[in-house]
Amino acid sequence: MNALFNDWDLPAPPPRTNTLSSVTLSSADPAARPPAPGDAPDGAPIVVAGATPAALAIGAEPLSALALAPVRAADKRIVNGKADINQLAPFKYPWAWEFFLNANKNHWTPLEISMAQDVHDYHHKLTATERHVFENVLSYLTTSDILAMRNIGLAVMEKMSAPELQIYQARQVYEEALHTWTYQHCIESLGLDQQEIYNRYRVVPAIHGKIALANRRLERIMRSDFDLTNRDNLHEFALSYLFFAGIFEGCWFYNGFSPIFALQRRGLMKGTAEQLQYIMRDEVLHCAFGIRVVRTLLAEENLQLDPAALARLWEEAEAAEQAYASFLLAEPILGYSAAQHMGQFHFVANRRARQLGIAEPFPGAENVLPWLDEQANMRKEKNFFETRVTEYQTGGALAWD
Ligand SMILES: [Fe+2]
Ligand SMILES: [Fe+2]
After folding, report:
1. At what angle do helices 270-300 and 94-103 cross, to 10 degrees?
2. Which of 210, 235, 208 is nearest to 220 (CA)?
3. What domains are there in the chain, each with its CATH number?
4. Which of 110, 203, 245, 350 could form a disulfide with 182 if both were Cys (CB 3.0 to 4.6 A apart)?
5. Among candidates 372, 284, 283, which has minimal Cα distance to 336?
6. SS3 per-residue string spanning 89-141
7. What letter does residue 20 receive in the DSSP assignment?
8. For residue range 191-235, what is the model confidence (pLDDT) as tens digits?
9. Are 352 and 401 a contacting pair, CB within 8 Å?
10. Residue ranges with CB less than 5 Å from ion ligand 2
11. How confident is the model at residue 11 (pLDDT cuts 50, 70, 90)?
């Protein structure tokens, strides 16, 4: 057996010498906040019920008591909070916990969806133009989901200072990894050249443009010296989270899926499309959660987003999407064109702006693909014997927005 895994025979580490009593777990200065129900009088130590010195001993040294002030929901903040991050309740953001519970209702793995018909469709039914669209969509999506995972796991989650936010984001990190597995499963099932597909974002300018835009934002907020007590940095962080949740996930992923749904609508590549429907269910939540965090952050911090910075954000996103659409759909496929792709982008972008409580970037944009919501929504009639039942979700939490 590999000694790195599950090797119970490794010698026990030497006893730790630190004790809990040497660690400051309380809000250091009881006078720094008003007393709360349950507080000990005059900031006196609170003795944890049932905690005997023996039970609390760590290593060789016993503990006599723990001087802990209770966590108060009011002390929690999205960022820069001082409340104990290791204590889930009391919740300040119960909606974040609800997001976590709802996310756990969308369980699947890509192995559960048959790709057999897709193999036939890809090799015998798709035109060269349709194969071009299909492959480049996969190429873009698979790179994007790794970026999405790194953003939430490495740049965003560590800045959150309430555990209920981090717990949903931990689930999101897993889901982004699952999405990458899903694309890989599609690529493998169809026998595509993995090296070539994965390398496209590095050699196709239209794909690289979108990835580079996201990478630039990610790298800035991942800087080790990025201090969120600085108001400029806080503004940049809010804008970056807004970009990832509202545009990268909320617009670009939606637009990323729609060409495949157009094929699905004609009975083609239905296995891949079903995989994407599961991914989209997750992305609906990622987008909604991120937007809610951003709105709450702005309110908590009394932060106003700079209208010029927002306008630049939308301009960059639109230009990158236009370049992508022009490359991807230089020739339209039946039922889906570059113009429709961009119309859809503008329409969804306005929806995200309304959710964010900011001005619509593309006033008057119309829903040019009215079938898309229906196509993308998992809850539709299916032949029970033809495919697995996917309508097990209860409640309205995952409703297509
Ligand atoms: Fe994803
Ligand atoms: Fe996502």
Report:
1. 170
2. 235
3. 17-70 (no CATH), 94-376 (1.10.620.20)
4. 110
5. 372
6. CCCCCHHHHHHHHHHCCCCCCHHHCCCHHHHHHHHHHCCHHHHHHHHHHHHHH
7. G
8. 999 999 999 999 999 999 999 999 999 999 998 889 999 999 999
9. no
10. 148, 249, 283, 286
11. very low
Rounded to 5 degrees, φ, ψ at 57 are: -65, 135
H helix runs in 204-269, sequence order: 205-221, 231-242, 254-265
Confidence (pTM): 0.81
pLDDT value of residue 400: 43
What is the whole-number distance in angstroms between the Cα of residue 169 and the centre of ligand 1? 12
Which ligand is closest in space to the CA of residue 178? 1
Q: Six-digit token pair at 373?
A: 């919501």
The candidate with the shortest Cα–Cα distance to 323, out of 207, 191, 214, is 207
Residue type, 167: I
pLDDT tens digits for range 80-126 = 999 999 999 999 999 999 999 999 998 889 999 999 999 999 999 99
Distance CA 44, CA 40 (A): 5
Question: For ligand 1, a single-atom ion, which residues have Cβ within 5 Å?
Answer: 145, 148, 176, 179
From the CA of 176, which ligand is nearest? 1
Q: What's the average model confidence in pLDDT over 57-70? A: 59
